[in-house]
Design goal:
Blueprint lengths: L1 H29 L5 H13 L10 E8 L2 E8 L6 H14 L7 E3 L3 H8 L1
Parallel strand pairs: 1-3
Antiparallel strand pairs: 1-2
Helix pairs in contact: 1-3
Length: 118
């Protein structure tokens, strides 16, 4: 029974991730932020997070973790359309869920993420 609940939470989390990615993609493709849904989303993000000084507008922080090795990256939002990066986000959702603060944690070797970002 508990396994069913976990799978349901994972599916809901993945659906939420897809919605966020779609909104960000629409914003990037349109070049402007004119939809009220996107404006509300951005306002929620501003209110709910405090960004570190090294995270510029249009970027987000990611931590790649594998066997105790971790490295922090600042990633442009444009990578939210990259297929390899989207697969990593799905793996992160399955492994860590959505209930943590700070940088997004991705389960992969830092060298692998460097290769994707290159």
């Amino acid at each position: 029974m508990a396994k069913c609940r976990t799978n349901g939470k994972r599916k809901n989390g993945i659906v939420m991730l897809k919605i966020v990615v779609e909104k960000l993609q629409k914003s990037l493709l349109s070049g402007r932020k004119n939809t009220s849904d996107l404006d509300e989303f951005e306002e929620e993000m501003r209110e709910s997070t405090n960004l570190p000084n090294d995270v510029k507008e249009g970027h987000f922080a990611v931590i790649a973790v594998d066997d105790g090795e971790l490295k922090r990256f600042i990633v442009p939002l444009s990578y939210l359309t990259h297929p390899s990066f989207l697969r990593l986000l799905e793996q992160a959702a399955e492994e860590y869920g959505f209930h943590h603060e700070g940088a997004l944690t991705i389960p992969c070797r830092p060298c692998e993420l460097e290769r994707i970002l290159a």
